């Protein structure tokens, strides 16, 4: 494969060394990916750019967000073993920073907003480290968990679309809680898959974990805002 610079299945050494290399580089790239994400959120807040307010129709905004999200994920996966994939991941996280900026700005503007954002951030970090630790010790069947997560992704997407019609606050909270649970399990599944040798691209792994952390943080923000009576 051309530019196959990250394919550790071809690397010399033991399987354990290869898996550790993928996991180490996954964490490194994951940490790096939050820099453009923060930059995107900052630039959006400073310029007042809001993708959602550019269109009068919420369905048009939703369609554009989906097109960006799945289009970038497709391109990153297509280049999962090359430097192009890593670059596209940085572009993707920058865009995701822009998308979360309105939620962050609103959260920071309410009473106790900084505390709410801080609590959500600490809880997100705690969930990540807990699931990462559990991934190293779990004896769960990852194939079964993978099938469960696939079904869960479909259910959550249907619920998101349904709530765009009905606009039910209780359903929105349930969806947010569902995303927290789903994304937490996805982190554990992805890390365990690397440890078991089922994932050989740290770019793909970093993408999955970044999306999971992003979903956990934004969902926790929504839940905490609702509990504080600010949603």
TrEMBL record:
Topology relative to the membrane: Multi-pass membrane protein
Top-level lineage group: Bacteria
Keyword Aminoacyl-tRNA synthetase found: no
Location(s), subcellular: Cell membrane
Keyword Membrane: yes
Protein name, per record: Bax inhibitor-1/YccA family protein
Organism for this UniProt entry: Neisseria montereyensis
Main location per the UniProt record: membrane
């Amino acid at each position: 494969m051309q530019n196959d610079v990250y394919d550790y299945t071809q690397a010399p050494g033991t399987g354990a060394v290869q898996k550790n290399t993928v996991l180490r580089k996954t964490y490194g790239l994951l940490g790096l990916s939050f820099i453009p994400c923060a930059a995107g959120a900052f630039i959006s807040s400073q310029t007042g750019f809001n993708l959602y307010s550019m269109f009068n129709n919420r369905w048009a905004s939703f369609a554009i967000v989906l097109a960006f999200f799945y289009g970038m994920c497709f391109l990153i996966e297509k280049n999962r073993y090359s430097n192009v994939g890593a670059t596209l991941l940085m572009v993707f996280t920058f865009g995701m920073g822009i998308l979360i900026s309105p939620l962050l700005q609103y959260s920071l503007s309410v009473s106790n907003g900084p505390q709410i954002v801080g609590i959500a951030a600490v809880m997100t970090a705690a969930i990540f480290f807990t699931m990462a630790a559990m991934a190293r010790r779990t004896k769960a069947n990852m194939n079964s968990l993978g099938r469960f997560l696939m079904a869960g992704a479909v259910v959550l997407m249907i619920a998101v679309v349904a709530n765009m019609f009905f606009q039910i606050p209780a359903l929105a909270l349930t969806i947010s809680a569902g995303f927290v649970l789903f994304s937490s399990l996805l982190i554990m599944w992805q890390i365990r898959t690397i440890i078991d040798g089922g994932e050989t691209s740290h770019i793909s792994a970093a993408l999955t974990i970044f999306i999971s952390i992003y979903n956990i943080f934004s969902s926790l923000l929504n839940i905490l805002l609702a509990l504080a009576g600010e949603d």
